[in-house]
Amino acid sequence: MVVNPLERFSELVTGHSRLVIVAMLVLTVVVASGASAIPAAPPQDASEFIDDSEELAAIEYVQDAYSSDEGVSTIQLFARDHESGSALSKAALLDGLYFQQALYADATVTAPLVTDRTPIVGVENVVATAAMGRTEPTLHAQVAGVTLDEQIAQLAGMTDAEVASVVASVLTGAPDAPAAGATLRLLPVDFEPGDATAEARATLVSRDVSGTELGEDFSPAVFDSERAIADLAAEQASTEYFLATFTTLLEEDAVAMSDSLTLVIPLALGLIVVALVVAYRKLADIALALLGTVLVLVWLFGLMGWFGIPGYDIITLGVPVLLIGISVDYAIHTFMRHREERSRGEASRLAMRRSLVGVGAALLWVTLTAGLGFLSNLTSDLAEIRAFGVATTLGLAAALLVFTTLVPALKIEIDGLLARLGRDRPRQAFGAGGGRFSGVLGTGATAARRAPVVVLALALVVSAGAAYGAVQLDASADQEFLADDPPGWMDALPEPFKPGDYTAKEKLTYVETNFRQSDATAGYVLLRGSITDDRALERMAAADAGADRDVFIATAEGSTLVSPLSAMQRVAGADPDFATALAAADTDGNGVPDRDVGALYDALFAAAPELAGTVLERTVDGEYVSALVIADPVPTAGDDAVSAALRGLAADLETGDGAITAVPTGDAVILSMTLGSLIENVIVTLLVTLVAVNVLLIVGYRLTEGSASLGFVTLLPVTFGVAWFFGTLWVLGEELTLLTSVIASLTVGLGVDYSIHFSERYKQELDRQSGVWPALFATMAGTGGALFGGFVTTVAAFATLGLATMPQLAQFGLLVALALVYAFLSTVLVLPSLLVVWTRVFGPGDVDFEQSPRTGLDTTTTGGDD
């Protein structure tokens, strides 16, 4: 007689199996139609983490008040010469000018370029125009009005020695040199002013992006232009030209992602097939498990389209691999229980009905708790992680639906067909046939019978040590996103599994290591208040003298900071009249003006308005409201070091009375603050996950089993596994990253799967058996084998991610595999002892602790093919 909703559901699925099959297939077609509507992943801005900070407000203020190129986006085109050995030789510079001609001849390249000035400017142009006798103070002014043909003719008519002499004079960085220090920024950081050789150089390409708000995507013409430049660069022979822009990096990233999918997904499925062959040993069951897994993936991508979830990398590859493992896990538990029921002589339909009743509650609890664990990622400030949590939860719901309706219904119909053909031979449940494997699997149950308190004491000691290591973990915002160059053995792989050659990471690393950061990523200190107070300039001088030369690059004039003071000193070196005014304002002769500062600022704007506008903000009424101090970070300096140095500069620049305030800002400061937010996100996400799952289990077990304490006991092994995982990260010298914040909740979501199946089965066996030990060993023999099968397949699925050429995904797969190992071990080794202690303290009063574990172990069946 049907007495509860679960039994009603089981009777519906098994009693109307053909109708269920048709309905689910139709529904699958409808859901799958949404896959074509999956939106592209939007860019993520670090400001989402710290949207109320004064540092973020300061960088936005700087961009508004000090950007002289509003509506212009400038990228760098890098050149490395492989023939002459120097990117500054006559041949290399001429080659650069010829390449510029090729760029201007391509309509796709020129479509978005600025028209109010020369859009492509590099060292080659400055050298050529300087050879003509031009000495303008800025890059664009230096080359204005001089054609490329004229520049080429000038250099072509000079000897190598003459070109080298011009190069050395141009690149001195002196105030009277063409384009002054701006040209030096187009050369590697180890370039010595006055040299005539360099390994590489950069050329600036300016695009018109007017009308585009901060954070918005550029027009397609801008991206098409970058692609066209990259294509033309690839055709050059004597000189290597390349871009290191988001467009070129992400396009290679997309290729690497596709290659990883092509390699990893078939390999994961192949390993799972092997595991299923070992566990099932029946072709029909293997085919059904694989079919159900594929349909879950179809549902995942369909639901992503219907719900508008973007296709982030970690969702495109990480979530399918996760669901492959979970789907097989659901299948194994359902099929193994079905085999147990059939071993008692039941027909397939009735056995499946009892199987769904037996594991249905566990599958439901697993889906609810794991889904709740993944949804805890909604507390994250990172959109990618929030989307990961939602996508995984939707996939879990799909797996539950597919493997409790369609797959069981198909199993019944296939078994019926095989029975009519005389080929329906029931198989034994994996791990239930005794032997050495069953003995190893039952280690936790054996230890629980002999010394449960000792087991728990050891688990607590190890977990306490691991927790200590976990709190010592350092956090890092650094994350490898670009693909590594594939290892050599992958060259032997056949098509289409053979990956391509990836060069973006090497090029980006070269640029970040050897070239100065762009203005957009420089370090800033924004000064506001009494900017004309002479104390402002005194503090700028003191801050410059105390600036850390290991963190910031010195300018050609020898100073470290670019500021109103350094700007005045530079102009004084080239303008005698301004030099006189500067000296008159310095009454104590220390080189720092101490009177008439406002008038001196006016003189600076009159002498060099463009330079003055980069460090001073003047209103239309002539009032000075802010000043900017710019520090150029050493390329190899870490964000933490740069951020700390900028905060130190801000402290030196600020007056104690509040007359002048100083706020450090820039990419390094924002990323450093993001790091702090990351740590909070990891902690909050993990705590929310543990609390939410614990509450759900306590309430759920109280309502369904009459024991809230059983819910708490079920989650304890998961907590141990989480501690072991983070403790291992500490031992291995790893750091907390964005991936860790995902895996923190994922560890709980997957770990609770094992614990619930074990606890649920133990409670059922305890009600059915007459003693604790028969119940415990029956649980280990029945559910333990299914747990092991699901564990192996899931770990195999994630371990294949380690072969991905994307470092982020490879690390993700290996770390999840490690977390699963700990979740499984904590379940089969620690949970049995926990359940024994729980039974003694909170369990039924009439439970027998004396009966032999062999008595009542009703899991045997005919055949011995374990």
UniProtKB/TrEMBL annotation:
* Membrane topology designation: Multi-pass membrane protein
| This protein's UniProt keywords | Cell membrane, Membrane, Transmembrane, Transmembrane helix
Q: Is Flavoprotein tagged as a keyword?
A: no
Q: Which GO terms describe its cellular component?
A: plasma membrane
Gene3D superfamilies (alphabetical)? Multidrug efflux transporter AcrB transmembrane domain (1.20.1640.10)
Which positions, given as ranges, span the membrane? Answer: 261-280, 287-308, 314-335, 356-375, 387-410, 453-471, 682-703, 710-732, 738-756, 776-803, 809-831
Key word Transmembrane helix present? yes
Q: Where in the cell is it found?
A: Cell membrane
Q: Note the Pfam families from the entry.
A: MMPL
Tell me which residues make up the SSD domain. 289-413, 677-837
Q: What is this protein called?
A: RND family transporter
- Organism lineage: Archaea, Methanobacteriati, Methanobacteriota, Stenosarchaea group, Halobacteria
